[in-house]
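Lecture 7 notes: from sequence to structure.
We start with the chain below.
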Amino acid sequence: MLYEAIKEPLLRILQAPHQPPDPPLGSPESLQIFRAAPPYLTLELLLHFGPMSLALALELISWAFMPTPGGTAVFVILASLIVGATVALMLVRYFLIRLDYDMRYYVLTDRSLRIRRGAWTIEESTFTFANVQNLTLHQGPLERLLGITHLEIDTAGGGVQKNAKEPGSSMQHQGRLDGIDPKTAVELRDRILHLVRSYRDAGLGDTPAFRTARSALDGERCALLESIVSELRQIRPAAETAPETPKPN
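Predicted structure tokens for the same chain:
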């Protein structure tokens, strides 16, 4: 396939990474890598090439009914040039859209999420679950038809201000997991919400693994303190009943 033959040399020219991004902060055992579903590529192609193809068809039809100086031969030449240039642009655009799809990664751990997309312009964002404020699923008519959805994440601080004209609006960092399977999107949302609640219950930066280790450590400390108190209780009666040592003259 032409795309596969051009992909590797094009990535080398663009100096774009071939592999998924490095995992964000979190436990290696919890690492999961997600990709956009194949229908997401179909959605992107429809959104980009649908209006372009319709505009080209209407333009050619209108030209066909307009008197053209030179007759049919001139119209055929002009139409061929327009169609050829449009097809070339669409081909280039297809390669860019396909590269963007292939280079899109969602990397999840028990502490954070990393999103990377793009080949021409590479964007990589990391979101810490301790700062997550809102999770939203988006699905329009085309998404429902193709069987995909988008998961939007809002976190506090470090990003672009939403509704900047509104006084008192907070700074929020926003990211989207575009074009994922609806079942996977729901599972991801529920998992992230569970992690967010665990962080809220434990305190900022306190991971479930850390809480387990801390609980075990607290148990050991309590056992040690109880043993010390028990020994002190045994020593105290003996000290009270011991005869006093006479003081030397």
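Points to note: The first helix runs from residue 2 to 14. Helices lie at 2-14, 38-64, 72-102, 141-146, 182-202, 208-241.
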